[in-house]
Amino acid sequence: MNTSRVRAVVRREIRDFRRNRFVIGTMAVLPVIFLITPMITLFKVPESTTGSQAKAAVGLISLMLLIVPIVIPPVIAAYSVVGERDQGTLEPVLTAPVQPSELLLGKAVAVFIPSIAIAYGMYAVVAISIHFGAAHVVQSVVFHAPQVIAQILFTPLLALWAIWACIAISTRTSDVRVAQQLGSLAGLPLLAFVSLISFQLVTPTVPLAIGLALALLAIDVAGWRVCSRLFDPERLIAGPRRAGRASRKRP
Amino acid sequence: MTRRAHAVSSGPLALGVEHLTKRFGDRIAVEDVSFSVAAGEVFGFLGPNGAGKTTTVRMLATLIGPTSGSALVVGIPLEPENGLEIRQRIAVMPENPGLYLRLTVAENLEFFAGLHGLADPRSRIGQALEAVNLTGRVNDPCGSLSKGLRQRVALARALLSDPEILFLDEPTSGLDPVATHEVHELIDGLRDRGVTVFLTTHRLQEAEQLCDRVAILNTSLLTIGSPDELRERLFTNALVVRTAAPLSMPEQVFAVPGVESWHRDDTDGYVLTVTNARTAAPAVTRALVDAGADVISIGEARHSLEDIYLQLVDDPAERPR
User: Fold this and answer.
1) Counting beta carbons within 10 angstroms of the beta carbon of residue A127, is it exposed (0 to 12), middle (13 to 18) or buried (19 or more)?
2) Which of A89, A108, B135, B258 has its CA 20 to 30 A from that of B115?
């Protein structure tokens, strides 16, 4: 693994995203759409409300905060392989001395950085708003230590799951929009997991949160390896119809 | 230009290809192709669309694996474990420039300099841009450049790593005559620096002008050699005679030793098939003068690379190995 090559990929990807109006627009608007309604609901919770009602309201915003790192990555990650193939840049990159694992890691990091910045940024905005404006009963639920740890730990790990799923799809599809749609669908299994934590159906104790985080981390590392294996330069360059079984492995 | 007189592959090999075959499912893209390219040689790879030229380049550039056969690229066996090492020592300029259009020229080159791990990327980028005469456009987004300028950026990208073998796929496609001339000069400069150039082109005149040797491919290799060698192999010796007026009795005039046959050509001249042009020409000249013919010119028939190409691609029976 050559880190300077990975850095080169990250730098290039981020430069490219920053000049893509569709990506910037979607990344700016999507979190606001997700968070605006639950935020209003939360601020309408009166001081006299019961603990269970407060948990339900907080559960909704917590769910949305954990959905943000799942829905943002497909916007960018969908471009990662199929987008490069579409614009004809994949072939020159693959003739450079870069390993597929380095290329994919660089792409994943480039998606991860803005995704995580947005997710944590939104969490910070929500936390500060609740601290200064929401009812005390809401604050006590939101700032419950295991809940905070779960949010902080799960956000990057969920983002990585979504990124690797979307990159894996991007290596196998022939259209960016298809990759985006399938990438969003790939995040659905995480919703069940996130809902259990957000609505405290599974009580998030610190050891449980750390245990689940480690499990997610293992899945994310496996995702990187699976993506590197799925990345078949021959199929990507020569096209799915042309790739035959008789070929030896790419040198 | 320092094109070598003797163009047979000799000296250290840059490329050695043995029985290389590539199948995509049932379709054979490249079949049993063998050739070698000497270090520092400019080698032309010609063939009609779908002949397997790009597939061969992709195999040698380690983009796709061969179905069978073997190759040595810069002395390294073309094997899966050697892909990275081979790619560190070669460069490919595909037909489609493949630039990141939202990035500037400098940013595109910086990216590839990073992938190659170049020690002094700024200086290398400056040199590469100077070589393709693009220093004034360094901060322009590639999306704002014309096709010709994009082609030049792609060429600069290929030169960045100072490769030992440079694969150029249609490098002058879409370029204006001035830019084409500049690319030709650049290829000559690369030859002088000892860089091996593997040139895929449809411009036969370009191949004839630039290449030490050419290979003509149509799934399998049709022929290989210098343009002069191919002419000798494919075409008989011939003289072309032009006269001010048609000869009254050409059969008598051309009945001289060394002339095997003759026919009128499309422009009211005569084409004579001869055993040896150098000995037959004086005899034919004397016969024409004796016959009182007004001779405009007499010379050896010159077949272009295009003639060779058309002869081979149109008529498989003519294929020498």
Assistant:
1) middle
2) B135
Beta carbons of A195 and A163 less than 8 angstroms apart: no
> Quick one: B29 and B135 in the same domain?
yes
Beta bridge partners of B20: B33
- Give per-residue pLDDT as tens, A22-68: 888 888 888 888 788 878 887 887 877 777 777 777 777 888 888 88
Smallest Cα–Cα separation from B27: which of A245, A82, A234, A203?
A245
Q: What per-residue confidence (pLDDT) applies to A246? A: 46
**pTM (two decimals):** 0.79
What is the distance in angstroms between the Cα of B131 and the nearest Cα belonging to chain A? 20
Chain B nearest CA to A6, separation (Å)? 8
Q: Are residues B47 and B76 in the same domain?
A: yes
Contact B82 A92 (CB under 8 A): no
Q: How is chain A split into domains, by residue range?
A: 3-234
Per DSSP, the three-state class of A243 is coil
Q: CA A39 to CA A41: how far, in whole Å?
A: 5
* Number of helices followed by number of strands (H, E) in chain B: 11, 14
Q: What is the CATH number of the domain that holds B254?
A: 3.30.70.100
Containing domain of residue B240, as a range?
236-302
Q: Return d(Cα A59, Cα B181) in angstroms, integer.
A: 69
